[in-house]
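User: Teach me something about this protein's shape.
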Amino acid sequence: MITEWLSTADRVQLLEVYARSVMLLELGRCTEWVDLFLPQALVRCAGARGQTPIEFKGRDELLVLGRRLMCGEFDIAAGSNVPPLRCRNILSNITLFGNEARRAAGYAFLTVTTIGGREPPRWLASGAYSDRLFKCPAGSWRFESRMFIADGAEGAVLSANQAARASLCAFRSPAIP
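Assistant: First, the predicted structure itself:
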């Protein structure tokens, strides 16, 4: 068993950070959403369909990103929306690892749907977050970096993940009598 330093309280706080990372934008509370990130945080989106990865760094760029997300002009997974779309972001399978003091790694799946309106909701995109979080001296957790890779995205990160999966699948356990 791997020993981790994350306490139960840390895990609860981290899960709350993940929940707020989608709900604050839904509620129109962009400034509070930006406060979930360290001032120098980096958000990188590797979209599908051959899109070039996009980066947002620092409080000012994250504030612009948050406003675009709230207005439906842009989505982390789907990219630019023309015309703007109301989207719903659903996080699942949140997994947390704490291997060193005041730092955690987090992973989650993201599914994005339209909210609907005259038409029924529909799936837009999906993918996975790979996050690094830092526990500030005051005790609150903040995103240090977030990397989103859309399902179907091409790139070195996916190639590395596929190679790792292939090597795991090639492993054979001893025969059980």
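Now, about its shape. The radius of gyration is 18 Å. Confidence is low (pLDDT under 50) at residues 156-161, 163-177. If you'd like, I can walk through any region in more detail.
User: That's plenty for now, thanks!
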